[in-house]
Amino acid sequence: MKENEIKEIWKLGVDSKIKPYSNSELNEIVIRSARKSMKAIRLGGIFQFIVIGVIIYSILMLAFRDNSPEMKLLDFSGLFIIFVCAVLWKHSDYKMDKYKYDTPIKEWLEYRINELNKTICRRKKYNILIMCMAFILGFGFHVIHQIILKKPFNPILSGVVFVGLVIYLAIITYSLNKKHLKTLEELKEIYKQFEESNYKNNKP
């Protein structure tokens, strides 16, 4: 079975007109389709390059900018938080993407559906708390930065940072929640098609 035929099967759905195909081909379809669906929730694309750019910029500033020890500590703390979050996100992506050939494909797919379900439930339960903590962390860095530099309080700048953070966090949270829900539905549909295909292949 050619690759374009495989894509067409999963695009249109499995029906009785499609002749049975081997288990290895079926597994390949499931893995490829699931990974394509999970791509939406990975740390990738433009966002990944932004994170890498921020990390490189922070390292250069720490290495070459002549700042006070307090400012260096603040910059290092920000760099550390971003780096740890990026590593954890990438590790999660790798874990979700990984497939061992001795693992039954049904179990592999069920695990990813269950993990996404848990993530969505946690987001629903702790969404406000996570947003508040992220806001406090982001705005706190701005306030501490101003204090260390001994700059006079600028209500306009602080107001812009405040509103900007609220809008940014709201957009990111909404986008991630939407992507997780969409990915979960796609994985469930793949699982359903896999069950139907498996049944047809094993039907006498």
Written account of the structure:
The structure is a single chain. The chain has 204 residues and is mainly alpha-helical. Helix 2 runs antiparallel to helix 6, helix 3 packs antiparallel against helix 4 (69-97) and helix 4 runs antiparallel to helix 5 (105-148). It is built from six helices and no strands.
Summary, kept brief:
The chain is mainly alpha-helical.
Q: What form results from the Cα inertia axes?
A: elongated
- Biggest pleated-sheet summary: none
Distance between the termini: 22 Å
Number of strands: 0
Using only C-alpha atoms, the radius of gyration works out to: 23 Å
Provide the low-confidence segments as ranges.
Answer: 1-7, 9-19
User: Helical percent range?
Assistant: over 70%
- Helix-strand pattern: HHHHHH
Tell me the structural class. mainly alpha
What's the number of helices?
A: 6
* Percent strand: under 5%
Mean pLDDT: 79
